[in-house]
Amino acid sequence: MAVPKRKNISGSAPHIYDETDDSYSPISAATPMSVSSVSRYLTIRMDDGATYLYIGKAEIGSSTASAVWQVQRITQSDTTVLWADGNANFDNVWNNFASLSYS
User: Fold this and answer.
1) How far is Cα 22 from Cα 81, in angstroms, rounded to an integer?
2) Predicted structure pTM score
3) How do beta strands 52-59 and 92-93 pair?
4) What is the pLDDT of residues 52-91, one digit of tens each?
5) Where are the alpha helices (DSSP H) in 4-56?
6) Please, which residues bridge with residue 81 across strands?
7) For 84-95, how does the pLDDT look when each residue is reduced to its tens digit (9 = 90+)?
8) DSSP states of 43-97
């Protein structure tokens, strides 16, 4: 299987190339992909604490110190899902997941 072409378009979220129709599609909450599809193109990090489960996604090979991560926080008690900075953008630093602002 060939490695998919990836690129950022005008500073937006990473885009994945779809060879079936020769187009790029953004990776975001608005265009969700199946877990099996996402895991082929993204690095996924998790931190499971007593109160929160944090999930971070970034392009494969991304540094955890770079502002290229999509981060969400799930409350363990009621499974409330919140996004870092209140959005699903790939613009957070995974190393800072616990101190980010979630809404």
Assistant:
1) 34
2) 0.63
3) unpaired
4) 999 999 998 899 999 999 999 999 999 999 999 999 999 9
5) 35-41
6) 74
7) 999 999 999 999
8) EEEEEE-SSEEEEEEEETT--TTSEEEEEEEEETTT--EEEBTTS--S-EEGGGG
